[in-house]
């Protein structure tokens, strides 16, 4: 800059600085860095899971899958990008290499990649195709590179780290700007490992030398954010579940070092000394990879809306996964679910009702109009309502020009100055009386509250407690249309079907013959008896005052479990594994010798071809989840035949129904043997056991 210009500018700069020092609130650390702020503003982006195990119907490839299986004859990465764009997502993170070790780009460091598949004569580079498609659709691009590699012969040795970093370098150098890199911490131990077929355990904290790996990442991609649930603290954190929600209280902070519990991942830590915001990762289907059996299990609109409010609405981002089919496309049902979801969000937040309202507060920082309460409802995202120094309690009142009905409230803090609010209350002035509508804790980058519709003339936000003077950059009010939740369908051991509504106003209607349920026909009042055989139940919720119907929910039940006797335990509680209620569970005997068995007499011979296991659904019971099993059948409870054995791959992070099928066989007794649980030595826990018959 020419000298004379500088001399003209510096008094202005100084004036600006003085103004800053007098009145602008001081940041209260820890603070996000620029990359974290940019990432947080993305709010919503996609995961895509696609690999060699898409062709073997497995959750985790073992590492020995034949590359010749890989045959995505209709692949169209532009379809993936188009769907994500239309769904309102801002980027895509792709499984460039999952645990099987198979690379979706022609890495020069391994033969286990797309370069050795017959399809397209080994010339394809799917990472490139997707990176290009993202560019075309204005989406950011991110990569998932699994540190655990079940194919590589050197996994577990120092040599593998060089290999891992070489691959990382390829991905972070050759495909343009990468916004996020995903280092999944999963390591189930066993694998192919170049033919060794053995179990290899590593210490995830030390083996990968994360500090050096992070350094490399940041050198190659200075604008990246790093996700890691396995070792050194990264830029982002896992929220402790893959079910699609973060804690209602959610601090974007963690201790910079040391182990973190699941509770800490779920809620953050109020006085943590590092900014590590949460990313909610979940799949649009129960599992991450495509399985045809899940075509009927795509998340419903009410489920996706819950996920939205429990992720983006709770100061996190949402990373929603699409499993790509073997033909290389996203299934049309997943596409429809994502687009309906986008439409519903648009409708929920169509008209901000603060437009004609006035915001006032008795606490404006130094009475400076730059920090007036109106700054919370203006359209400038950079401006904010600021309160006086040393204040930790302050009200803001919004007065509508006429009585206004609303049921959603958005609040935001300017996080570049730190996350401050510890608790707050929201009240509405209804017919001249203040009515409390919410009492909550943290806000952070964005908090969205849902509550039953109120018609009010005023809304009062009272910040009750904060780490430093509270600041609110945005407050919006909406009236979102009601979305009825389809009923939950369960069947108890006696074969009675139970329906449960998501609210207290809906009536429920059902059918048992596969036809479409209709309001007014077959109203659910008490549990419905089925004849004990297979049953296909469909049900809807219906709101008589709005005359709205929900989507239909659907469940298929196999043979009823009426005559089943649990032989391996005398405890009456053991019958909770067949009570049809996923919320109840039974844990095997802790003192019993390993391996632990669940033995059931089916009461008569059945023609079996599979079984399903639902682990204890309790958040804290993960040690009891079975990860390796054997399933045996018998005609006489004496001689047993093993019909299935293996792993429940990603069950710890995604403790959902696990279904295994086998060659059909007649038997009267079944034995599920837990070979391994998450917390080795823990008694196996079961919420439900069920069978698939021919
Ligand atoms: C988990 C993995 O083991 C799953 O397969 C999936 O990739 C998910 C996103 O992370 O930990």
What would your notes on this structure say?
- The protein is an alpha+beta fold and 694 residues long.
- The protein folds into four domains: 36-348, TIM Barrel; 353-478, Jelly Rolls (Sandwich); 488-557, Immunoglobulin-like; 565-693, Galactose-binding domain-like (Jelly Rolls), CATH 2.60.120.
- Helices cover 16% and strands 32% of the residues.
- The strands form nine sheets. The chain has an eight-stranded parallel sheet with strand order 7-4-3-2-1-12-11-8, with helices on both faces. Strands 13, 15, 16, 17, 18 and 20 form a six-stranded antiparallel sheet that branches.
- β16 (421-430) and β17 form a beta hairpin.
- α3 (77-86) packs parallel to α4 and α5 packs parallel to α6 (210-220).
- The relative contact order is 0.09.
- Residues 1-21 have low confidence and may be disordered.
- Bound molecules: beta-L-fucopyranose (FUL).
- Residues 59-60, 184, 186, 281, 288, 650, 653 line the site of beta-L-fucopyranose.
- Residues 1-23 form the signal peptide.
- This is alpha-L-fucosidase.
- One of its GO terms (molecular function) is alpha-L-fucosidase activity.
């Amino acid at each position: 800059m020419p000298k004379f210009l500088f001399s003209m500018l510096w008094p202005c700069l100084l004036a600006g600085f003085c103004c800053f020092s007098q009145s602008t609130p001081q940041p209260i650390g820890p603070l996000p860095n620029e990359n974290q702020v940019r990432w947080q503003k993305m709010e919503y982006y996609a995961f895509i899971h696609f690999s060699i195990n898409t062709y073997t119907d497995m959750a985790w490839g073992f590492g020995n899958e034949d590359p010749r299986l890989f045959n995505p004859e209709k692949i169209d990465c532009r379809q993936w990008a188009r769907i994500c764009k239309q769904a309102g997502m801002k980027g895509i993170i792709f499984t460039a290499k999952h645990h099987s070790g198979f690379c979706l780009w022609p890495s020069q460091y391994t033969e286990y990649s797309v370069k050795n598949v017959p399809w397209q004569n080994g010339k394809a580079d799917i990472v490139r195709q997707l990176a290009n498609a993202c560019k075309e659709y204005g989406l950011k691009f991110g990569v998932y590179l699994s540190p655990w590699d079940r194919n590589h012969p050197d996994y577990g040795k120092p040599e593998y780290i060089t290999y891992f970093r070489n691959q990382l370098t390829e991905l972070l150098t050759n495909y343009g700007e990468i916004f996020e890199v995903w280092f999944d911490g999963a390591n189930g131990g066993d694998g192919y490992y170049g033919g060794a077929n053995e179990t290899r355990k590593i210490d995830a904290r030390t083996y990968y030398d994360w500090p050096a790996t992070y350094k490399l990442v940041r050198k190659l991609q200075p604008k990246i954010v790093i996700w890691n649930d396995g070792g050194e603290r990264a830029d982002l954190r896992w929220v402790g579940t893959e079910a699609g929600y973060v804690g209602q209280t959610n601090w974007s902070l963690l201790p910079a070092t040391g182990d973190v519990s699941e509770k800490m991942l779920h809620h953050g830590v109020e006085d943590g000394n590092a900014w590590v915001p949460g990313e909610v990762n979940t799949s649009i289907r129960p599992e991450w990879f495509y399985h045809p059996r899940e075509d009927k299990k795509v998340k419903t609109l009410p489920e996706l809306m819950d996920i939205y409010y429990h992720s983006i609405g709770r100061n996190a981002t949402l990373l929603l996964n699409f499993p790509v089919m073997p033909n290389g496309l996203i299934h049309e049902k997943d596409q429809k679910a994502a687009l309906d979801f986008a439409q519903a969000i648009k409708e929920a937040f169509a008209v901000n009702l603060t437009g004609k309202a006035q915001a006032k507060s008795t606490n404006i920082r130094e009475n400076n109009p730059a920090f007036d309460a109106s700054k919370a409802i203006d359209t400038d995202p950079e401006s904010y309502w600021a309160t006086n120094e040393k204040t930790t309690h302050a009200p803001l009142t919004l007065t509508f020009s006429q009585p206004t009905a609303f049921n959603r409230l958005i609040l935001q803090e300017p996080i570049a100055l730190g996350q401050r609010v510890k608790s707050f209350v929201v009240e509405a002035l209804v017919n001249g009386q203040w009515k409390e509508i919410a009492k909550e804790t943290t806000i952070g980058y964005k908090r969205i509250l849902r509550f039953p519709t109120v018609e009010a003339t005023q809304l009062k936000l009272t910040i009750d407690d904060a780490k430093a003077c509270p600041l609110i950059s945005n407050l919006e009010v909406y009236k979102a249309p009601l979305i009825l939740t389809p009923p939950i369908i369960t069947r108890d051991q006696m074969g009675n079907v139970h329906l449960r509504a998501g609210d207290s106003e809906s009536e429920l209607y059902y059918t048992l013959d596969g036809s479409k349920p209709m309001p007014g026909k077959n109203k659910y009042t008490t549990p419905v008896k089925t004849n004990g055989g297979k049953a296909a139940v469909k049900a809807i919720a219906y709101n008589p005052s709005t005359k709205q119907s929900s989507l239909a929910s659907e469940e298929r039940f196999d043979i009823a479990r009426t005559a089943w006797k649990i032989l391996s335990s005398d405890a009456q509680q053991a019958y909770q594994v067949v009570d049809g209620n996923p919320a109840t569970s039974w844990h095997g005997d802790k003192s019993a010798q390993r391996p632990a068995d669940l033995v059931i007499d089916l009461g008569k011979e059945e023609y079996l071809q599979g079984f399903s296991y639902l682990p204890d659904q309790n958040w804290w019971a993960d040690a009891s989840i079975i990860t390796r099993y054997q399933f045996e059948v018998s005609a006489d409870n004496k001689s047993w035949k093993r019909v299935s054995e293996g792993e429940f791959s990603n069950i710890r992070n995604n403790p959902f129904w696990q279904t295994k099928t086998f060659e059909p066989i007649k038997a009267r007794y079944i034995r599920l043997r837990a070979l391994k649980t998450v917390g080795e030595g823990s008694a196996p826990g079961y919420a439900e056991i069920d069978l698939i018959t021919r």
